[in-house]
Amino acid sequence: MKHIESVNNPKVKQWRKLLTKKERDKTESFIIEGFHLVEEALKQGEQLLEIIVSDQVGLPPRWDVSSTPVTLVTEEISKLLTETEAPQGIYAICRVPSKMGEALAQEGKTFLLIDAVQDPGNLGTMIRTADAAGIDAVIVGHGSVDIYNSKVLRSAQGSHFHLPIIRGDLHEWIERLQGKNIPVYGTALEGASEYTDISSGESFALIVGNEGNGVAKDLLSSTNSNLYIPIYGKSESLNVAVATGILLYFLKK
Amino acid sequence: MKHIESVNNPKVKQWRKLLTKKERDKTESFIIEGFHLVEEALKQGEQLLEIIVSDQVGLPPRWDVSSTPVTLVTEEISKLLTETEAPQGIYAICRVPSKMGEALAQEGKTFLLIDAVQDPGNLGTMIRTADAAGIDAVIVGHGSVDIYNSKVLRSAQGSHFHLPIIRGDLHEWIERLQGKNIPVYGTALEGASEYTDISSGESFALIVGNEGNGVAKDLLSSTNSNLYIPIYGKSESLNVAVATGILLYFLKK
């Protein structure tokens, strides 16, 4: 097992660069941290490139890492890689699934389309929720926070390794889905139907949007219909991840 | 209008102390920040004690502050009061509703009971969701983050001023609610019914619990029945605020 002790080692510099979107895009790879996420990557296998672990921390004996490169690093190096306040000392470098995910997504029947959601905790929670609801693929449009942002990854709790999460143009996806007779539902406060009035079938796509402005108007005008969740009390709206959960579980049943 | 320019002014010290739970409990008051929250407090009226605004920031002309003390402060003082990275320069001191809220809650028909939820963003989002779903009162049990923590207040987006949010002993509340023939539903992964199998009436109480451990076993054993939300995909669970939204909107309809 390799052991890196110098913070100036070029590998360390390369790993750290993955904390930026620019480098993630360039190398089509990303960094994850924490036992749970690394274990999810290990279980899935295909995307995992290497594991990095602090020499003060052990790998759980149940993990089979026989086909994964593992590098030991000092605590000092470990702390350079974290974006959390209480790092667990374990990291992995993973590959962006790219084309395979796209191909898989094409075969799906149920989709979540995300328009310009900017809070990483919200985006991660929405991905986790789509996974729980058994959705086949999540399409993240322009103007959203990066899919591989560390907080998105943490909030999604491993769902990145469970279903295709794809960047895409939502206009193109709406057209493509409608071409396959998959009904596309937007979410809107005006000119929309109460969500419980929809009788959904086994295929559907739901579009949810930006925390402040909702789904863009030009997207809403190309959906099959638009839905709203009634507000019975005095709050102005629901959190976007909560709204996503209510709608996906309603459409799914 | 009073204008405070010294960071050593005793008022400033007193306001700052409200960033701690200890002082909030002692004085039965709390501090809020940002235009939206202060406006919600102003609309509700009863709990608002005073408004504090940076002399670099104006009050919106539509606000009627004729019956509320307003104090101008310097930007330097304003920054001492904030817990955000981009403060808006406006704050208010509010009173904890205490007994009145408790009395109102007693008359309710629909309740959310929260057991040991520790993330302030989750607790705030759950309060906001309960408000949206038209729930009559939220009871927060021991072991949860403080109701008046600044991040709970921000995530709840003003719902603290819309419905009673009460600290209480959940065992006592379950007994009290069942005494009024209000069915109490726990949430659990084992020994529970799928939530869609329940036919709910116009009164109900839902208990949701800690992010990692769920609702305490001794609470689950005193409910009328316990519910679970099926996981159709590969994620292990739903975020607690998302689960709360799915269940409350299902029970409410």
From TrEMBL, chains A, B:
SUPFAM superfamilies: alpha/beta knot, L30e-like
RNA 2-O ribose methyltransferase substrate binding domain: residues covered: 31-100
Matching InterPro entries: Alpha/beta_knot_MTases, MRM3-like_sub_bind, Ribosomal_eL30-like_sf, rRNA_Methyltransferase, SpoU_MeTrfase, SpoU_subst-bd, tRNA_m1G_MTases_N
Keyword Transferase: yes
Family: Belongs to the class IV-like SAM-binding methyltransferase superfamily. RNA methyltransferase TrmH family.
This protein's name: RNA methyltransferase
Lineage of the organism: Bacteria, Bacillati, Bacillota, Bacilli, Bacillales
Species for this entry: Neobacillus cucumis
GO molecular function annotation: RNA binding; RNA methyltransferase activity
GO-annotated biological processes: methylation; RNA processing
GO CC field: cytoplasm
Keyword Nuclease found: no
